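Researcher: Let's try something more involved. This one mixes different molecule types, so please make sure each is placed in the same coordinate frame as the others.
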Amino acid sequence: MFNFQYYNPVRIVFGKGAIKELSALVDKSSKVLLLYGGGSIKKNGVYDQIIEALQGVRLAEFSGIEPNPQYSTCMQAVELAKQERIDFLLAAGGGSVLDAVKFIAAAIKFPGKEPWDILSKGAKVSSAVPLGSVLTLPATGSEMNTNAVISRQETGQKLAMSSRYVYPVFSILDPETTYSLPERQVANGIVDAFVHVMEQYMTYDVNAPLQDRFAESILMTLVEQGHNVMKNPNDYETRANIMWAATMALNGLIAVGVPQDWTTHMIGHELTALFGIDHARTLAIVMPAVWQHQRAVKGPKLAQYARRVWGVQTKNDEQAIDAAISKTKKFFAGLNVPVRLSDEKLTPEQCRPAAEQLGKRNVSLGEHGAITAKEVMEILELAR
Amino acid sequence: MFNFQYYNPVRIVFGKGAIKELSALVDKSSKVLLLYGGGSIKKNGVYDQIIEALQGVRLAEFSGIEPNPQYSTCMQAVELAKQERIDFLLAAGGGSVLDAVKFIAAAIKFPGKEPWDILSKGAKVSSAVPLGSVLTLPATGSEMNTNAVISRQETGQKLAMSSRYVYPVFSILDPETTYSLPERQVANGIVDAFVHVMEQYMTYDVNAPLQDRFAESILMTLVEQGHNVMKNPNDYETRANIMWAATMALNGLIAVGVPQDWTTHMIGHELTALFGIDHARTLAIVMPAVWQHQRAVKGPKLAQYARRVWGVQTKNDEQAIDAAISKTKKFFAGLNVPVRLSDEKLTPEQCRPAAEQLGKRNVSLGEHGAITAKEVMEILELAR
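Model: All components are placed in one shared frame. Result:
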C-alpha cells in the first residue's frame, strides 16, 4: 500500500424526505443562489421542496446549466453571484449541475483575470464560496468529492479541476428524486459509477486487500441493483442502493494508497467533446478496449475481478480475463448502453482527433504512464 | 435502508514516516499538550519523532494514561490543561489514550461542575478543545470517530460518550509504530476491530447490500491479515492492512442506514469493570454466546456471514449458523484469545453482578431491544 492522506468533510443527508433538512443545513442569514439545469426539478417536485425548506432565506436563482456544463454558462452565473452578493451556492441536479457549481464557487473568488486558467493551466484555487447540493441523479460522485469537469464549445475542450475548497458542505440524497429520471440517464449513471470504481481498481496489485474488496463490493452492488432497476424502476430500496453505491464510487475512499488509471475517462472526455456522446456511453465503449490493449499489465487484476465479481470459476487466467471483458460488455449492453464505436455509427478513423488532442497535451496515460497518443489510437481501433 | 446522516471530517495521514507531517498539521502558534500512556512511545521512537516534528511549538506533557482510562486520571489532565492554557491536545498511543484525550477535550470546556455527568447522565457537550492523534495500536477506531469510553474504579463503572466536537482534527497512522507491540495487544486489536464490525452487521436485513459487503470486506481482511501477522509480525504491508481495516471498522461508514446491536460490548464493558479482563477478550468470550442465544433473530445474517466470509458451502442454514459460530471461535483461539469464561477462570455465577449492573440501568439490548438483565444472564451461562 502507498502512503496516503484521506480527508472528506462532506455531510451526507440520505433518505426519504431528506430535502426538508435544508432548513437546518443552510444558515438563515445567508443569501443563497439556487442553481439548476433545464427545469426537470420543477417537474419532479424537487424545486418546490427546496423552496419550502428555504422559506425565510434570501434566494436568487440561476437555471439552464446544460449537460457537459459550458464555461460560458458558468461565467454568467459567476456574474450574477457577484452582482447579488451571494454567500452560499445551492446546486440542485446531477453531476453536471454540481460540477458547474463547484467551478462557479471557485471562479467567483478567483483573483486572476480568466477563471478558465483553473482548468487549462491548473491555476491555484485558494478559496471558494461555500456550496451545498441536492442530488437528483446518481452517477458522478460529485456530491462527495472535490472534482469538476467543464467544457468549452469554442475549442472542443473538456477539462477537469480539483480543489478541497469546493467540497460541498452538505449533499442531500433522496432516492425518491430519481424515480422520474429517463431510463437512459439511470443506465448512464450506473455505468459512470461502475467505471469510476474501475479507474481506481483495475491496475496492478499493491497489497491493499481492503481497498480491492471495497471496490469489488461497489461493483457487485451496481451489477445486482442495475439489473433490479431495469425490472422494477420504482423500487425505493433499489434506487437507494444505486445512489449510495455511486457516491461511494468516487469519494476518495477506494483510491487511498493504490495506483489509479484514468485512461478510459481521458479518452471518453475527448469523444464527448468531439461528438457530444453521453459521458457514460463513451466510457462503456472505451473501457473494454483499454482492457484488451492492456491485458498484459492489468491481467492479474482482471482475473481477480472476473472471479470475485462475476464468480468465474476457471483456473486459467487468460480465460478469466476474456470472461472479465465479455461479462462487463454484456452488463453494459443489458443496460442498453453501447459497447463499441460502431454502435454510435463511428469509425476509429473519425476518432483520430481525440488521440491527436491528447497527443498535443503530451499526456502519458495508464498506471505506468505508457499510453501515449499512438496507443490511444490502437485502443480506439480495438473499440471499432 | 434507513435514512441516515454521515459526516466524518477526520484527516487521516497514513504510512511510513507519517509522524513528520505533524509539523504541517499543528498550528505553530498553539500551545500543545502531548498526552500518552505508560511510556512505550519513549521506547519505540514515537516520542522522539513527535518532539522532532514539533520543534518550535510550545509543548507541555501529561503521561500515565492507563488502559481503560480512569476518570480521576483524566481530571488531572484537565487541571493541567487549564493551568497551562492549552489550546491543542495531541494524543499519542492506542484507543485508551485517544479516548481519554477526547473526554479531556470535552471536560476542559464543560460548563457544569462534574464532567462525569457527560458519561453518566449524557450531559450535553457543546464544545471541546481541538485534538489530534498519533495512533500506535490499531483496534478501537477511536482515531476516526466521536466515541470515548472512560472507567471509574471507585464505582466499578465503564461508560461511553459520543460527540462530534471530539472528532480528531487529524490522525496519523504509521504502521511501523505497531511493530513493537506485544503479540497479545496485536491479537486483542484484531479481535476488537472484528467485533466492532459485527456490532454493526450481525443484525437483521434491511436491504443495504453495500453496507453488508463493506462489513464483510473488513472481516475477510482481518481474518487474512490476522493469520499473516501471527506468522510474520514484521511485515509492513500486513501491519498496514490491519491498521486501515481497524480504522474503517468503526468510523461510521458501515453503520449508515442499518440497525446495530452493541450487546457484546455492553456485557463486555461490565466484565472489564468487574474483573479487569482486557476489553477485546471480554468480547471474544461474549459474542459467540450472544449469537447462540440470538440465533433465531440473527440466523439469516449469520448464515450469510458463514458463506461469504468463511466460504461455507452448505445450503442448510442451521449448519451454516453452527459453522459461523465455530469458525469465529477458532479464529479468535488462533490469535490466542479466550473464547469462554472458563478460559479466564470465571463461572457465569461470578459474573452475575454484570447482569445486575445492566439491569439497574434498565438497558434493553439487541437490535429489537429484547435483551434485558435476564437474557444477559442466559448469555453468560452460554459463555460458561
